[in-house]
Structure formats: structure tokens, C-alpha cells
Amino acid sequence: MSNTYKSAGVDKEEGYKTVDKIKKAVGETHNSNVLNHLGSFGAFYEIGGYKNPVLVSGTDGVGTKLKVALDSKRYDSIGVDCFAMCANDILCHGAKPLFFLDYLACGKLDSEIAAEIVLGMVKACKDNNCALIGGETAEMPGMYQPGDYDVAGFCVGIVEKDQIIDGSKIKTGDKIIALPSSGFHSNGFSLVRKIFPNFEEEFEGKPLYETLLVPTRLYFKDIHSVIEEVEVSGIAHITGGGLYENIPRIIGDGLCASIDASKIQIPSVMLELEKRGNIAREEMFGTFNMGVGMIVVVDPEHAEKVLHLLDDAYEIGEITEGAEKIDLKF
């Protein structure tokens, strides 16, 4: 019997099935700027309507949150997470997402699972006026075990050069406004899984995995509703490393983000994790978003308007002078 690619563990037919299951839905994310379709070696996207456009790109993955999804056999939210982690990053500079590409790797491809993951990306892209214009599915037996998947994405957005938000306008007295997260988002799951090994256990009346798999919140519509009305000095996406690592990324030398942690609305599942794992509060804030998915820094005169535009946002601090770029007061 002669050897074939399938005998080595790679089933091309399953890949074709995946494409068939997602092709129509992916096409629905395309607009007139997309000049070709799935199947080409590269994707074409035409830019128009900008005077001095700057492309802003971001790439990220879902991390070990995938283990929760795979073990619970719930795949629909993971694609949303992948898109959100990328799109929220470029949003920090005021960029609007133009197009998105994905990379899906596995040990043995199951077209049903792969399609469900990609269709989550499709939903997120459609909700954010972004085109899913390409991707790659890699079946790699030996590198991954059967049942294992890894997901990563790449997002390109656009912003006028004179409208780039980079934190350079942040000054003393500016207010720091928090936008709530939808949960853990896609960070810290190696620790989450260590403390919560049983995803089927009941938490607040439902299986724990339902709480853990709530997809990463997308902030595009909220942030742009603010940008269109007021000048924003800085935006930070609170991902791995929590407030401690992400807020200093936009704070200039000699300035400090002075934050009152008692004002932060910490989700109950994070408080349970902290208690059950005997984790120090500082460690929690240095690992998880602790209920703050994104922060916006604005001039004091704009703070009330921002809070009016964002129904669930609230003030957590202000910019002061200081050698340290963040001072989190517990």
C-alpha cells in the first residue's frame, strides 16, 4: 500500500469541507473595497476616502482559553475572542478596522469545529464593519495532538495621521475613565485553569465554563462614539499584565496614572478565583483586567460627556505628576 498525505495524518478533504462551510458567511463581511475573494494567494483591499491615511496593525491569539472551549466543546465564542484581542489593540490609536486574517492550527482537522471558530470571527467582523479577507488552516499531526487547536489573528485598521491617539497629549489633571470588561477576556487562563480545574462545576446557577467563555468585549462602537464627540488623550486596552502593565504604555515620563482601586467593579468570578486560589490582590491586578477592559483618558472638561456617551463607564482616577507611571491605591 502506497503512502499518501492522508496516511500521514493530513486530510485535505476535511480542509475543503471547512472552506465550503465558511465561504458564504465570510463573503458577507466583504465590501466594495475587497477586490478578490477566498482562494487567491493574497487578498486585495483598496483604500479610499482618506487624506493622509496611516495603517495600524495588530496581531494576537486566544491563549489557553482555548482549553476551556475545547474541553467544554463550546467553540462559537473563540473566534470573537481572536478578533477582539486584535481589533481592541488597534482601537487604542483611534483606528477603524479594515480587514482581518486568521490562522488556525490543529493536530487533526474537524471541519465542524473549524467552521464554528471561524464563524465566530465572521460575526465579530460583521458587527464591526470589518472584512474577513483571508486565513490559513494548518493540520499538523505530531506538532499538535488530535483535538488540539490554536487560533491567532491579524487585523489592519486605518486612521488619519492627524487623528492618531498615542498618549502624547495626556497631561496632569486628565481623568481616567474605565469601560467594563465582559469577564477574563482572553488573558490569565493558565492561572484560571489551575484554580478552576472543573469547568463543569456550578457557579452562580450555571456551569462555570459559560462564565469563563463569555467572549472578549468589543469596544469599537463605544470608543468611536466618544472620539467623534470629544478629543481623547489616550486609550489603553487592558490585556495580559492588567492595569499595571498596560496603562503605563500610554503615560509619558514624569506623569502618573493615579487610580483608586476601590472604585473598580470587580466581577464576582474574579473575586472567587482570588479567594479560592489565595491570590494576593496585587497579583490579581497584575494578571487580570479585574473588570476593566479598556480605559480612556480625557481632559476634565470632557469627562461628564464621555460618561454620558458610555452608559456603563465610570471614573477611576486622574493623571498626576510622579516618577512611577501608575499608582494603584487599594
Q: Pairing-aware structural class of the strands and helices?
A: alpha+beta
What separation lies between the terminal Cα atoms? 69 Å
Shape: globular
Oligomer: single chain
Protein name: Phosphoribosylformylglycinamidine cyclo-ligase
Enzyme class: ligase
InterPro entries: PurM-like_C_dom, PurM-like_C_sf, PurM-like_N, PurM-like_N_sf, PurM_cligase
Catalytic activity: 2-formamido-N(1)-(5-O-phospho-beta-D-ribosyl)acetamidine + ATP = 5-amino-1-(5-phospho-beta-D-ribosyl)imidazole + ADP + phosphate + H(+)
Itemize the secondary structure elements and their pairings.
Blueprint: H1 12-27, E1 53-61, H2 65-72, H3 78-91, E2 96-106, H4 111-127, E3 131-139, E4 149-160, E5 175-180, H5 189-195, E6 202-203, E7 206-207, H6 208-212, H7 220-227, E8 232-237, H8 242-246, E9 255-260, H9 268-277, H10 281-285, E10 292-298, H11 300-309, E11 314-321, E12 326-329
Parallel strand pairs: 2-3, 9-12
Antiparallel strand pairs: 1-4, 2-4, 5-10, 5-11, 6-7, 8-10, 9-11
Helix pairs in contact: 1-4, 3-4
